[in-house]
Amino acid sequence: MQIAPYLNAVVVNRGSDLHIKAGGPPRIRISGSLVPLQVDPLTADQSWEIIRETMPAEVAEEFTATNEADYALHVPEIGRFRVNAFRTRGTVSSVLRLVGDEPVPLAQLGVPDVVRRLALEPRGLVLVTGPTGSGKTTTLAGMVDAVNESRAVHVLTLEDPIEVVHRDKLASVSQREVGTDTKAWSTALRAAMRQDPDVILIGEMRDAETVKAALAAAETGHFVMSTLHTTDATETVNRIIDFFPPHEQKQVRLGLAASLRGIVCQRLVPRATGEGRVCAMEIAVNTPRLAEAVADPEKTDTLQDVVGTGGYSGMQTFDQHLLQLVLEGSVSIQDGRLASSNPHDFSVMLKRAGIDPSLVDGATTG
């Protein structure tokens, strides 16, 4: 396989993604930045030949019809990758993201204990959110693994494509891939209730139909996990409500307030050592105050305050977690401030902690 040396370079250099594009050399994303490989630029024919070789026959057929395709690629002795192929200015490009063959346990990910607690909820809805490349898949895989090790239940996942492979432990895990194991999200969601699931993982909430199905499952005693491309807890709630027309929003708010168990929002921030990135998290847990803020549109803008003062329940804002990461030396002052939700307020938090925000090396004033 022609692409194998490039994929191996991703693994060797601890990268996250490989970009294949005509007119330039392949590039690897390392610690957030794209780095070109020291090889000749690819022609349009070479780019297409390399990408076509990774496609199963049915995926190639789909790509010919739609000019884009999502699929998984496993290369022995190198790893497993999530692939998106697409056309740009008439040529074929592709981005391949390295994903694990095995889930990384939550303990090894270093996430707060409350994430494991949320993963083991018997029923309700938990959302993991963040921009593309923020580690949502890794966190969700760790949460599914926690269930797999702890509960004798049926875990049903609906993914496009399957990324991390789960093998049965205490639980029985059924992973369904859209396009391979089922024709469409809507078909899989309708069938899910007839497959006796206790835990349902929906790869992404992408429309009102998916959200309705997730809420219905959570309200009928299932535990549901899913993702959204949102930046924080407030935006997550608003995005879910905005999927629906105004006359349905009140009922959706009430349903979400009752079924929601938690929201885990993620951002990746460069490590202070310059090697790799660390995950900063905002965590909202559905306490009575938070449920009230979700249910009442006039109180939704208080969600950030509820999260910021909910430390007893395991809640934290991004800026609170970033401050902790700066204090322990994992993240530099400068990177913490750049990643913060409110740089001015974050600078005030630094001063209260005895840190001069004007410094960039993490030194304290005291």
UniProtKB/TrEMBL annotation:
PROSITE patterns: T2SP_E. One of its GO terms (molecular function) is ATP binding. CDD domains: PilT. It holds the Pfam family T2SSE. Residues 193-207 form the Bacterial type II secretion system protein E domain. InterPro entries: AAA+_ATPase, P-loop_NTPase, PilT/PilU, T2SS/T4SS_dom, T4SS_GSP_E_ATPase. Gene3D superfamilies: 3.30.450.90, P-loop containing nucleotide triphosphate hydrolases. It comes from the Bacteria. PANTHER family: TWITCHING MOTILITY PROTEIN PILT (PTHR30486), TYPE IV PILUS ATPASE PILU (PTHR30486:SF12). Belongs to the GSP E family. This is Type IV pili twitching motility protein PilT.
